[in-house]
């Protein structure tokens, strides 16, 4: 499998092989077309197909090409937006519904693994959260109180399973972990066995919603459907949800521990941004996985430095013999802290979406599958209103909404303000890229350090922000809404659906 970054994730390398049955199909009508072959798309497709819907999954590249291939796969009922914040932003009842839905997901994943005999190393475990200063202690007590109020089984803990100093800790029972790609492959196989079709290397180019049926124009022909689901992590095109979701980059690293003592549970500190730790057993080998150093996409000058900083953090606490993998990936944070699942605003009501999962996509992907099937089968479920993308919450998330869009406006303005005329390609270090301004046009220049230079327009095709160079993943990333492009300007991640204009490729002497 390939992923949307240059660094190999653990899951990419230590993975079973799976190839979808079909390489192409004749144009035909489906009940539901699901766009996106990550955990959300495949969980949704499996749920619908096993209930009798005839489904087609479209995936631009290969299954788990997106963030599912770069996740760290903690399966939590304890969420990044803690229940005290959900209670403040919404109310206790909403928080209780979300907690129950999260607990149901753990049961659902376990039953999916059992029913379809999925060999993904699923294990039950606990989660530990620890505070290291008085402010964090105060916050930890609030988080614990709220967990208890909403019915998540949590308590104070005297110990944590890692050698890190702390003041106070809590433990949450009934969490899980697995190999995310092997899990998705298992669900994909079950989906195909139930009669579903997956087309890899098949990008949805356009959806025409004007008729009774939705027409999907793809790289492999045109299809029709009653419902279309965007499980693309962020929907393509320009939509209200792009104003309400902020893209973030997070970093992960896999190490071998000299002690041979690999913690079985999920562990989190309370730094801002926090660090997270866990172990996965694959083919008899223990892999210690650490993550963190999150920042808004495009807001870190030297993303390589985030790997160095993460390694330093791990080495401070653990005796490491080697580091085998280091990768980064992108997630989207919603402005009020909970995802948007349901009808895509300003579209035909048969067009559905699931986005804004933050760092809890393992859990929220399955909540999305549940909500989407209830909408399609017209069944009642409190979660439909709670996660509705059209929910009106003037207070909840307003501050984040304003901050995010203020940042977007600043990025748009920077086009005019901060770039100065610069034609000095020599200033670009080998294997790096830089945005320069030539004849008033911002361009992205990448030099391979040998003889080749690639030049693309630096104007994001989504909403015209200026892209930034991501040193770690060797990509052009848009700080506004998270669109990402390869060195040659090819779309790696939405919401952009057009490549950057490719201006020039030449050997250095001829530039
Ligand atoms: C470093 C990191 C660590 C994380 N750790 C955790 C964790 O421990 N626990 C947790 O719960 N969550 C975690 N998350 C979040 C979680 O990984 C994501 O929320 C989840 O993987 C999103 O899955 P998805 O299927 O919605 O999106 P993706 O996996 O991104 O899948 C979307 C797919 O859509 C495809 N696509 C896009 N556009 C089109 C198109 N036009 N046509 C066809 N296909 C298209 C893409 O190629 C992609 O494969 C983490 C995130 C990061 C970045």
UniProtKB/TrEMBL annotation:
Protein name in the entry: FAD-dependent oxidoreductase
Record keywords, A-Z: 2Fe-2S, Disulfide bond, Iron, Iron-sulfur, Metal-binding
Pfam families, per database record: DAO, Rieske
InterPro entries the record matches: FAD-dep_OxRdtase, FAD/NAD-bd_sf, Rieske_2Fe-2S, Rieske_2Fe-2S_sf, Rieske_Fe-S_prot_C, YhfW_C
Transmembrane regions listed in the UniProt entry: none
GO molecular function: 2 iron, 2 sulfur cluster binding; metal ion binding
GO cellular component terms attached to this protein's record: cytoplasm; membrane
Domain Rieske residues, every copy: 420-511
Superkingdom to which the source organism belongs: Bacteria
Keyword Repressor found: no
